Amino acid sequence: MKNKLRCLGLFVFILALSLTACGSARTLADSSVGTKETFPPTSVTSQREEPSTPKEAETIVSSLDFTVQELKGINEFLSRSNNRIPGMFLMCNYDKPENIDYNKVFYNGTSSTGVPGPEETVTQEEKEAVAKAIGKEGYLELGLPVQKRPKAKVEALIKQYTGLSDQAIAGIEFAFPYVAEFDAYYSFYGDGEPISPKVKTAIWLDEAHTRAQVEWEDSQRAFSGTAVMEKSSEGWHFVSNLLNP
Predict the structure, then answer these.
(1) What are phi and psi of 109, to 5 degrees?
(2) Which of 168, 197, 188, 159 minimizes the C-alpha distance to 74?
(3) Residues 6+ positions from 199 with CB-CB distance below 8 Å
(4) Which of 40, 179, 188, 210 could hold 139 in an S-S bridge, CB 3.0 to 4.6 Å?
C-alpha cells in the first residue's frame, strides 16, 4: 500500500512539473510574438524612364519640312522667268527689311518680267530729257539703255515684298538720280545683275506654316544663302537674308 501511494505521489509530481514547463514555454512564445522584430516591405525602386523619342515630336518636326508642292510654289515665286523682282531681294545681306539695299533690288529697274528685259517703257523724248536733267547727255551717244524706276511703283513693290509701313518706305534713300518731271529714278548702263535663285531646302519655322527658312543658290552669279521669308497675301515677304561667303 505504501508503495502504491509512493508511486501515485511521484506521478503527480511529474505531471505538475510537465504542466509548469508547458506554461513557461507558452509564456515565452507569447512574449516573443510581441517583441519579434518586423521589417518594412522591400521597396521596389522604379526604373528611371529613359527619354524616348516621342513619335508626336517626330511628326511635328517632319511636318515642318516643305512638301514637294510647297517647294514648287516658292521656286515659282522666285523664278526670274515669272517675275524678276522677288529674286532681287536675295542680292544683299540684311537682318530686317529696313536694312535691305534697295539700290541692288532695283538695280535694273522695276519691270516685273524677266523676258525680254527689265526696262520700263521710255520714249526717246523722255530719255533725252532725263539725260539732260541728270547731266548725262553723253550716255545718249553711247546708246546705253535707260532704267526707269517710277517712285510710286518702287514704293508699292517694297510694300508688297516686305510689308513695311508707308512711313518706313518714305524714309528709304536711293542712289539713283531722281527726276521730278517724271517722278521717277533713272540710270543708264548696259550691264545687268541677273540672279536666278532656286530653293535647295526649306523648312517652316512655326507650326502655323507662316514663316520659313529657305536655303537657296543662284546659277547665274554663283550666289547662295539662307533667307527667312514670311507668307503673305501677296505671296511672300522677305524678312532677312544671309549670303554665304
Answers:
(1) 115, -160
(2) 197
(3) 71, 74, 75, 78, 214, 215, 216
(4) 188
Q: Walk across the sheet containing 211-218 and list its strands.
A: 197-204, 211-218, 224-232, 235-243
Enumerate the H helices of the chain as residue ranges: 2-35, 55-63, 68-78, 84-88, 102-105, 124-133, 138-142, 151-162, 166-170
C-alpha cell at 207: 507650326
Residue corresponding to grid cell 521597396: 43
Point out the least confidently predicted range of 17-21, 54-58, 177-181: 54-58
Model-level pTM?
0.72
Backbone angles phi, psi at 84, to 5 degrees: -75, -25
Sign, CA dihedral 231-237-239-241, equals positive
Half-sphere exposure of 188 (CA within 13 A, CB side): 18
Tell me the backbone φ, ψ of residue 88, rounded to 5 degrees. Answer: -70, -15
Distance from C-alpha of 20 to C-alpha of 15, rounded to nearest angstrom: 9
Residue with cell 543658290: 217
Residues 30-65 have pLDDT tens digits of: 444 444 444 344 433 334 344 444 443 333 344 699
* Stronger pLDDT, 12 or 64, i.e. the higher one: 64
- Residue 242's closest CA among 221, 216, 218? 216
Which amino acid is present at 191? D
In whole angstroms, what is the distance from residue 66 CA to residue 68 CA?
A: 7
